[in-house]
Write a structure and sequence with these properties.
The protein has 319 residues and is of the alpha/beta class. 29% of the residues lie in helices and 25% in strands. The protein has a seven-stranded mixed beta sheet with strand order 5-6-4-1-3-2-11. It has a four-stranded antiparallel beta sheet with strand order 8-9-7-10. β2 and β3 form a beta hairpin. α1 packs antiparallel against α2. The chain is globular, with a radius of gyration of 18 Å.
Length: 319
């Protein structure tokens, strides 16, 4: 039987300082029984994702250690961040902690891990936490929850006009979020693959139409796909638009990266645009399954530190 394990792709609002990111990675990777299997850093969005895999208890401790360290180094209320013109939508210094069951783990394993982390963040660190998916009694979805916060209003360049707030009371921690830490969203669901497609244009409106067309909620949309479009830095100081997708059915024929890329390519061609590249920010389910079968989880090996295609790689003494 494949090992019982949980994966968390922690999203934090730091993507530019290699020294800080090295320290944060080490805090997560130092917990016995948990492995940091990938880190993805995006300078444009000032955001990184750290993929932590291991037994539920080990992942819980590793994610807590990561958050505890992150909130000492990230200040959402700093003038530099409030004036940033390219930073990604967010409501928390540690913005999102999604937990997924893998191997022989159950959804309740992931939900229990998520709730355990959320409770500790509120009680020990004083962070306001909202939960979603199997971690919340209603099973509410992530997108649904985000629409009840200021997440979608906190656009690049509009952070100072839209403070962190929520129409729903935090499930853990203070009722009023601190301006420095914001609100952390923590939940449990089946695995979600983050897949981005770069379109060689600066026409954000047209790419928003493409993103809308491929969403599962649209007529003719693709299975399990959530999508948005963002302006993003490209190679050689150029700019492009990324269609950023959450693939909730990434192993299905209708919702896999190949199907999504084909549809976006077709829509882009009709609009007169070409696709530059496409990439995943977190490992695929198949990649994680391979790590489990090989017994690599829990061992201390060098993790890949990825960036968007065309960007200069991050440097790390520990990698």
């Amino acid at each position: 039987m494949m090992r019982r394990a949980v994966v968390c792709f922690a999203n934090i609002q730091e993507g530019r300082d290699p020294k800080i990111l090295r320290e944060l990675a080490e805090s997560a990777a130092s917990v016995p029984g948990a492995s940091l299997v990938r880190m993805f850093s995006d300078r444009t969005f000032h955001r990184s994702g750290l993929c932590i895999v291991g037994g539920p208890e080990a992942v819980s401790d590793a994610v807590f250690a990561l958050v505890k360290n992150s909130v000492t180094k990230i200040d959402l209320a700093s003038p530099e961040r409030l004036s940033d013109e390219t930073i990604h939508h967010h409501i928390g210094a540690v913005d999102l902690l999604p937990f997924h069951p893998i191997g022989s783990a159950t959804m309740e394993d992931a939900a229990h891990t998520s709730r355990t982390v959320a409770e500790r963040l509120g009680r020990e660190l004083g962070i306001s936490v909202l939960t979603y998916g199997a971690a919340h009694p209603s099973g509410r979805g992530l997108a649904e929850l985000r629409r009840q916060t200021s997440f979608f209003r906190r656009n690049p360049g509009a952070l100072s006009e839209n403070s962190v707030d929520s129409q729903v009371k935090p499930d853990y921690g203070p009722a009023d979020a601190s301006p420095k830490n914001g609100i952390t969203v923590c939940g449990a669901s089946e695995y979600v693959l983050n897949y981005n497609i770069a379109v060689d244009t600066q026409d954000l409106t047209a790419c928003r139409d493409i993103a809308k067309a491929i969403r599962a909620t649209s007529d003719g949309g693709l299975q399990g796909v959530e999508a948005m479009a963002y302006t993003h830095a490209g190679p050689k100081s150029s700019w492009l638009v990324e269609v950023a997708c959450n693939l909730k059915a990434s192993t299905s024929a209708g919702g896999c990266p190949k199907a999504v890329l084909e549809r976006v390519t077709d829509l882009a061609d009709k609009a007169g645009f070409r696709i530059m590249h496409a990439y995943c920010t977190n490992p695929t389910p198949e990649e994680i399954d391979t790590l489990l079968r090989e017994g690599s989880i829990g061992s201390k090996f060098k993790f890949p530190w990825n960036v968007p295609p065309g960007e200069e790689p991050m440097t790390s003494d520990s990698n």
